[in-house]
Amino acid sequence: MANLAWKNLVYDKVRLSVTLTGIVFALVLVLIQFGLFLGFLDTTANIVAESGADLWITAPGIPHVNGATPIPEARRYKALSVAGVERAEKYNIQFVNWKLPSGAQEAVQIVGFDLNSGLGGPWNIVQGSIDDLRGEDTVMVDELYKEKLGVTNLGHVAEIQGKRARVVGFTRAIRSFTTSPYVFTSFKNSQNYTGTAVDEMFFLLVKAAPGASIAAVQKGLKATIPGVDVYTNTEMQKKTQNYWLFSTGAGVTTLMGAALGLLVGMVVVAQTIYASTVDHIREFGTLKAMGAGNSYVYKVIIQQALISAGFGYVLAIGVGYLVAKGSEAGNAAILLPPEMAVGTLILAGIMCIGASVISIRKATTIDPALVFKG
Amino acid sequence: MRNLIEIRNLSKVYGEGSAAVKALDGISLDVHQGEMIMMLGPSGSGKTTLLSVMGGILRPTSGSVKVNGIEISNLNETKLPKVRLDNIGFIFQGFNLFPALTTLENVEIAIELRGRAIPKSRARELLEAVGLGDKLNAYPANLSGGQKQRVAIARALAGNPPIILADEPTAALDSTSGQIVMDLLSNLARQQGRAVVIVTHDARVLHYGDRTVHIADGRMTDNHHMPEAA
Fold first, then answer.
1. Residues of B56-67 as b/e, b for ≥16 C-beta within 10 angstroms?
2. Where are the domains of chain A?
3. What is the pLDDT of residues A59-116, one digit of tens each?
4. ipTM for the complex?
5. Nearest CA in chain A to B112
6. Hey, which residues 287-316 in chain A have their CB within 8 Å of chain B?
7. Out of B82, B90, B95, whose CB is closest to A289?
8. pLDDT digits (tens, 9 = 90+) for A199-229
9. Can you list the domains of chain B with their CATH numbers?
10. B216/A contact by beta carbon, under 8 A
């Protein structure tokens, strides 16, 4: 039986190519649309996800991590007094202007973090180190934004808010969802660039003591510090992601794109498998006339669908991987995590079996006119 | 001789109401073991519909159809395949071979449908019996029309069915190939005792039959034995 399904498929290579093209197109569409969606989610909250903090203390009611307002430094001492708090470090994220070599201004987001703990600092450092940021007026930017910021090499000197900034390191693939790149520097330097008061900061990043319950520490911080919100790292990620996802056109568009990609993919696969089944309809009718039961015909059709799905999947993953790899150098990230590869395999199987089931009724009803007349 | 097919007062209507078309109207017919019947009639007269009903592919609107003693007119779709599998071998005008399978595999698949009841080696024996022992690994696309029809005959015999239903088996063949195919079908009736029903327009092969049945406008207009069998 597997022999018939397999031989039916490979016998007509043109038809097989058309079938596989349809499935690969559909799966690549799904992979890229969902990859863009995952890339979107990742980009909106990467600064939170990679911060290493367990808890975030912010001014009340901030909409997302890029929209904070200052809180007094005194909150830090209260935080440190709460049981289970190992560290509470000052942290800034604030929009400022970066002066390009042409004299034009480009908005960037200064990220000021504690150099000793590294909480909220850069990751994927490819040139320079955290220690290089100990120097006065030193910053680190991402390779993706070199051209945008007019940065050519390490040691490049620019101006932030009219103050000197020397590039001492580069990171790789730290994207900003806003059009303003992240520029990492020490907390002290960030105060200088943003002009915030010396006794203020935008966030407190809390690291819980080993073994301490994050929920208990969060509860303790809320009870101890007045006039602040306290979020777990996950809560801050979700808050930021949900804001950009549901409160902006870009988010809704990406979400719709992923949903539409899934829908179009399903329709294309359904049509492709249906056409492939209908192409063999006379053979299935002959099988039935020969005495094959419906279950036998179902199995041949489903095997054909699964074989098509398997080949289509392998090709689609290859194409998807190349596209995702190519996107690493671009502004829009397309993520293809292993979970998505597994999910797409399951999806491909379900779509192909589902589509074949649609065509099964046609294949299990013998049309005498089709079977008897050549 | 035992009746292998018994049809009584059979009618088949397509469509409903004012769009209804009566394809078969009050047909009664017996087909005996070892008998070869030639079914004649103009296009659209109902021959293929009658063959389909005999083979359990179409359900009649009214009347009775017994195949090897089994009433199939009201048999449900889960039981009909077994009746076909055990009792009927079909031969089609367009051969209906699986183009992706070799000659041998085309016959083996008919054996595979019967589980392990029949050894696969029977496929080779059947093909040798129809003179295609040297074409076991050929694909249908590389066979002549006559050779394809002989493969189809071998396939129809895979389950050793007592009844063979053939729809215009020589229509696509030249006279030499047609004669070879008819000789094989004739042997199935005369030497092997099967009931063979052949729908045909081909006047060259009428003399092979024991009996001719004429169908016109869904009715049986003539049913007589040939003066002498070929």
1. bbbbbbebebbb
2. 2-44+249-372, 60-227
3. 999 999 998 999 999 999 999 999 999 999 999 999 999 999 888 999 999 999 999 9
4. 0.89
5. A1
6. 287-294, 296
7. B90
8. 999 999 999 999 999 999 999 999 999 899 9
9. 34-59+75-225 (3.40.50.300)
10. no
